[in-house]
Design brief:
Strand content: 15-25%
Number of strands: 21
Structural class: alpha/beta
Organism: Pseudobowmanella zhangzhouensis
InterPro entries: Alkaline_phosphatase, Alkaline_phosphatase_core_sf, DUF7151
Pfam family, one: Alk_phosphatase
Distance between the termini: 102 Å
Largest sheet: 10 strands, mixed
Keywords: Phosphoprotein, Signal
Protein name: Alkaline phosphatase
Helix content: 25-40%
Low-confidence stretches: 1-35
Length: 626
């Protein structure tokens, strides 16, 4: 048998269906080779599918031979020759075989994203057409304004779950949705450990972000060489923060938090303390007071004079915007100083008899002190020199519970926009830190609903800042100080309510665990555990009862309500804990391209310093002040 294989396809000429052809000679025995008993010669064509051993891309098999048994069919034993005409290999993906991919919306979106990311990199690194890199790095010193957003406790799973919930609240399936900062062009990961701890706290992590130096758990604005709680070890170990550098450089500065403004995250922008718990003088041991250490609230009110005392001849104008909770740490322990919306019979905690809010007003007669929604709304951002806003005795309300505030309090988005409106009056720019502090607190209480709602409000505040600024001169960083032991588990089908019970793909009823009971997608590794508080929006209501960890029969429980608190595996008497895994860093604006891969958390300070040249500008300001 003779075999032939051709590389050019003949299917268009010969056809792909099987056929037989009689020979021209010997058709009926006449004019044959011997004039008698002529036989037919037959040719048969067979189409070959893709993957054929002879023609991997498909083609045609052509068999020929004599019909010896005269049955009109070319049997296998009658084949004398076989030829193959093979289809050529694909030279382009733009053909019908791949149209199912090329026309797929996910495929198209991915192509567009790659193209967009490529251009973003070209623009950021100053190699796009018409741009030339200078001796400085791309984006270096270009950030007139810097905004650092910190979602306290906003781990990766929190971002994912909040993204899905927000999408579902908008009528989508949810998973395809994006939070505002999901759309930022650059992102990376941050390693959150403290110098002395695998799983960190907010004091050590925020100090790292603000100063560029990692430190121990529980200390504020100082390095790891101090001993926590020992006032005498602070001197000489203080760190300079990005806010302080911005202040020295002549920029306006601001701090916004939904937590107490003396809490660890906001405090790390302005204070130096051997213990994060020294929020006011009543929290401090007498030995620390006698040694001359100052409480965190006092340090905030006296920030300007304290900073000037550290640098000879320096003259700064102090922090322009302070918005947050924590009035109790600024007021004397005397009912006469209660604010109209005080919750406690005696609102203030200070045992030194000092009203720090009054002291602030004496220092800044042109400033405004506000404490409720009405006074906040009355602020004229175009003319206001500075503002101190303390909206709650302790932490501000959870986003889901804000409507229940006695005197009303602004949302994080409102606080952010007002802060920017005031700060951008300075032609030299500004530094602003915005913290969504209550994401962390809702997680500690084991209440996913509260944590996710605060995360969504945080994302709205980020979007407001994006809308009010330009990538040309404003660096915006969105990150977290640490995560929580908060999980997204099971195999729920696409679009399943993120706060609901797991319903498997193709099913309509909740899946059952090995114990015969349904289970939720969201849960906690440890904490106070199960609560069914229905429509209660205050996550802290969880603390009214002892821990109730372990499995519960949720068959008749609506787990999507605000007051549902997820089950926890390990019972803890106090609260759920932080986690030690990496958190996200999302960035846009000058220098944003420097964020990629996995980074030490202290890198965030160095990014702000690079983009804003804070150290250089502060150094340049100091000689003129001497």
């Amino acid at each position: 048998m003779t075999l032939f294989k051709y590389s050019l396809i003949a299917a268009a000429v010969l056809g792909l269906s099987a056929c037989s052809l009689e020979g021209d000679d010997g058709k009926d025995g006449t004019d044959g080779s011997n004039g008698s008993d002529g036989v037919n010669s037959l040719v048969m064509q067979t189409a070959l599918v893709v993957g054929n051993g002879q023609c991997p891309n498909g083609g045609v098999q052509i068999d020929s031979g004599l019909d010896d048994n005269r049955d009109g069919v070319l049997d296998s034993g009658e084949i004398d020759a076989t030829e193959y005409v093979c289809s050529p290999g694909n030279t382009s993906v733009n053909n019908a075989e791949l149209l199912s991919s090329l026309n797929n919306s996910w495929f198209v979106a991915g192509q567009q994203e790659i193209a967009s990311n490529k251009q973003t990199w070209l623009d950021a690194t100053a190699v796009a057409a018409g741009k030339n890199a200078t001796s400085k790095g791309p984006g270096q010193g270009k950030a007139k304004n810097i905004i650092l957003f910190v979602g306290d406790g906003m781990g990766i799973s929190t971002v994912t779950a909040a993204r899905i919930l927000e999408g579902q609240m908008q009528g989508k399936m949810g998973e395809e949705h994006q939070l505002s900062f999901d759309k930022f062009p650059f992102a990376g990961l941050s390693k959150t450990y403290n110098v002395d701890a695998q799983t960190p706290d907010s004091a050590g992590t925020m100090t790292a972000m603000m100063s560029g130096v990692k430190t121990d758990v529980g200390v504020i604005g100082v390095n790891e060489n101090i001993s926590r709680g020992d006032c005498s070890t602070v001197a000489g170990n203080e760190l300079v923060t990005a806010l302080e550098l911005a202040e020295i450089a002549g920029k306006s500065t601001g701090i916004v938090s939904t937590a107490r403004i003396t809490h660890a995250t906001p405090a790390a922008t302005y204070a130096k303390s051997a213990d994060r718990n020294w929020e006011d003088v009543s929290d401090m041991p007498q030995a620390a007071i006698d040694a001359g250490c100052k409480d965190i609230a006092w340090q905030l009110i006296n920030f300007e004079s304290q900073l000037e005392a550290r640098y000879s001849g320096l003259d700064v104008d102090g922090i322009e915007v302070v918005f947050g909770g924590g009035r109790r740490h600024f007021l004397p322990k005397d009912a006469a100083y209660n604010t109209p919306d005080a919750v406690s019979s005696v609102e203030g905690d200070r045992t030194d008899g000092v009203d720090l809010t009054a002291n602030w007003q004496l220092q800044y007669p042109g400033g405004e002190y506000v404490w409720d929604q009405t006074s906040f709304d009355a602020i004229d951002a175009t003319t206001t020199e500075r503002v101190l806003g303390l909206f709650n005795e302790s932490h501000m309300q959870y986003a889901a519970d804000r409507a229940n505030d006695i005197a009303g309090e602004p949302s994080l988005t409102e606080l952010t926009t007002k802060a920017i409106d005031i700060l951008d009056n300075n032609q030299q720019g500004y530094f602003l830190m915005v913290e969504a502090g209550r994401i962390d607190h809702a997680h500690h209480a084991g209440n996913a609903y509260g944590a996710l709602n605060d995360t969504m409000e945080f994302a709205k505040a980020v979007q407001a800042a994006v809308d009010m600024t330009s990538d040309e001169d404003t660096l915006i960083i969105v990150t977290a100080d640490h995560g929580h032991v908060f999980t997204i588990a099971g195999y729920p089908k696409r679009g399943n309510p993120i706060l609901g019970k797991v319903v498997n793909i193709g099913a309509s009823e909740p899946a059952m665990a090995a114990d015969g009971m349904p289970y939720t997608t969201l849960g906690y590794t440890n904490g106070l555990g199960y609560r069914d508080l229905a429509d209660v929006t205050d996550s802290d209501a969880s603390y009214a009862a002892a821990a109730d960890a372990g499995r519960k029969d949720l068959a008749e429980v609506d787990t999507t309500t605000p007051g549902y608190h997820q089950e926890a595996l390990i019972p803890l008497a106090d609260s759920e804990t932080h986690s030690g895994e990496d958190v996200g860093i999302y960035v846009r604006g000058p220098g944003a391209w420097l964020v990629n891969g996995t980074n030490e958390q202290s890198m965030i300070f160095h990014l702000m310093n690079y983009a804003g040249e804070l150290t250089e500008k502060a150094d340049a300001a100091l000689p003129a002040a001497k």
